[in-house]
Amino acid sequence: MGILSWILLGLIAGAIAKVLLPGRDPGGFVGTTVIGIAGAFIGGWLSARYFDRPIVKDFFDGATWAAAIGGSLVLLIAYRLLFGNSRR
Question: What is the pLDDT of residues 18-44, one digit of tens each?
């Protein structure tokens, strides 16, 4: 997959992570989108590096989506823990 595919996957993964983990985010929509893109990259890298699951060239691979959504969820939780109480 190319860089644009990962960005698109990250946008969708960020939206799915937001649905799975509702509530107020410190960064709003833009912050959640950036977290989704970063989560897709990190999830794909971790999947390829540590779980012996290479990144396939197919956009619709279930493991690629799971890694992207999982990475987005982890980053969203970490972001809320670090910066969640700074805005009220």
Answer: 888 877 776 777 887 888 888 888 888
* Separation CA 58–CA 83 (nearest Å): 35
The model scores a pTM over 0.90: no
3-state secondary structure 22-71: CCCCCCHHHHHHHHHHHHHHHHHHHHHHHCCCCCCCCCCCHHHHHHHHHH
Length of the chain: 88
Phi, psi of 65 (to 5 degrees): -65, -40
CA distances from 70 to 17, 22, 53, 67 (A): 8, 15, 14, 5
